[in-house]
Amino acid sequence: MNIFTKKGLVFMVQVDHLSGENLGQVIQYLYDSGASNVQIIPTITKKNRPAHLFFIDCRSEYADKIEEIIARELTSGGWHRIDTVHRHLCTDLIKHSVTVKSDSDSFDFMIEGKKIGDDRSNIRPEHQNCMDLKDEVFQKFGIHISLSEANFKISEVLNGTDKREIIIC
Q1: How far is CA 88 from CA 3, 117, 130, in A?
Q2: Number of domains in the chain
Q3: Among 18, 51, 97, 107, which lies 20 to 30 A Cα-Cα from 114?
């Protein structure tokens, strides 16, 4: 197994004064500014106040933009900026063209999944691709399928044999 290394940054920020709606919006701002990953953990601070601890992962070239969001949107007076070494396996994006069929119609669709490491038998569907399948099934067939069903159907093809079709009932 090949393990790779790249340098990065993690910001740690404690926030005890923003509503859930504001926190959710800040997550999007952070991603739009170059964050690769944002995690929020609920916590209790001094005087038993509820709070949230942000962990924001990014490459160094996005650090200034991330710090602007921290200062402007989280209105934090201070935070931790930690240099890190990110260890990871090789990931490949796998794509397959499939035919999506219902009782009366069909359409072609490109499914996408992420293969992590050397294990060809464990390919995870890409979230946005599952959302796109769900939306297109509704647009083309007028059938609502759940996100978990779209995920299952894409996973079944990516991790299965040479199956190249998805059946929607």
Answers
A1: 6, 9, 24
A2: 2
A3: 107
